[in-house]
Amino acid sequence: MPKVKRSRKPPPDGWELIEPTLDELDQKMREAETEPHEGKRKVESLWPIFRIHHQKTRYIFDLFYKRKAISRELYEYCIKEGYADKNLIAKWKKQGYENLCCLRCIQTRDTNFGTNCICRVPKSKLEVVSVQLVPLLIWAFARTWSDFSEVRNGRGQDH
Questions:
Q1: Which of 120, 127, 152, 159 is disulfide-compatible with 116, CB 3.0–4.6 A?
Q2: Do the beta carbons of residue 91 and residue 33 sit within 8 Å?
Q3: Secondary structure letter of residue 95 according to DSSP
Q4: Phi first, then psi: what are they for 33, rounded to 5°?
């Protein structure tokens, strides 16, 4: 597939330093978009695309705001050409939104119960849920409820 020509204006100085990383992320994005999604829910098929979009935007955000490794001209060029999401970067600059993974996480209209994404819950507030896998696995392999009750009571047959 030929490379998409983004703009007639030549990129600013410093572009050659970030271009290989952005090209690699573009290639990963194309692979994620063409990946088969049979057997997945609609939202599950979009997760890799959101993750790569976040990586590209975070890469440019970190270069400009955190490490101060690129110029404002190059930063604005990346936003104008669609390499970074300016709305997501605007949220990252606000207090409380520093770790936002995507803009869908704060849009309550996209959820069933009008809630936010798990990334919006502070780690200190998350509850640790103890999951016992052995009973779940036994139940998953039991063929009928009577098989399940026999296995649970210790009278299961070895097959």
A1: 120
A2: no
A3: T
A4: -70, -35
With beta carbons less than 8 A apart as the criterion, state whether 102 and 88 touch.
yes
With beta carbons less than 8 A apart as the criterion, state whether 150 and 157 touch: yes
pTM: 0.70
H/E segment holding residue 97: none
The terminus-to-terminus CA distance of the chain in angstroms comes to 53
Q: Of 97, 65, 67, whose CA–CA distance to 84 is shortest?
A: 65
Alpha-helical regions (H) of the chain: 15-34, 42-61, 72-80, 86-92, 133-141, 145-152
Q: Which two tokens stand for residue 68?
A: 């101060």
Amino acid at residue number 38? E
**47: phi then psi, degrees, rounded to nearest 5:** -55, -45
Q: What is the CA radius of gyration of the chain?
A: 23
**How would you classify residue 41: left for phi > 0, otherwise alpha for psi between -120 and 50, otherwise beta?**
beta
Q: What are the pLDDT tens digits along the chain (159 aa)?
A: 445 556 778 999 999 999 999 999 999 999 999 999 899 888 888 889 999 999 999 999 999 999 999 999 999 999 999 999 999 999 999 998 888 888 887 877 777 777 777 667 777 777 765 444 444 444 444 444 444 444 445 554 444
